[in-house]
Specification:
Blueprint (H helix, E strand, L loop, with lengths): L2 H9 L7 E3 L5 E3 L3 E8 L8 H21 L2 E6 L8 E8 L3 H9 L2 H4 L3 E7 L17
Antiparallel strand pairs: 1-2, 3-5, 3-6, 4-5
Length: 138
Amino acid sequence: MPRSIENLRAIRPPPTTLAHTSDHGRSWVAGSAGISYLFRTGRGATYDDAELARIQAEHLAHHARLRESGQVVTNGPVRDQPDVSLRGLTFYRTGSLEQARQLAEADPAVRAGRLAVEIMTWYCPPGTMSKPGRAVTL
């Protein structure tokens, strides 16, 4: 596991509670929110340019469908990351961490072996995961 991700896990609030108060007195709420880190794997088959373009188009369409359905709040690539294998983040709004894992593993780029996922619970201040015109519950 890349060192930068180990550090993120070290500062994550304890997973055994649904509410957590930080050292600064701010409340954080956890519910059915999950976050996935997408990593370039460096393994799997090699693909020609046309196949890579097809996989990328299907990857983008997969995430667009999840955003449209409300199962993903937001997602996207990252830049200037200390670990260059980290390619992107996805914030899920699902009924369980297992459901977030299933959605992440259904990504065509993951199925093709181009990306691998790490799934974990994300603690956030109340109201963080909102969508215009719609109330959001965790």
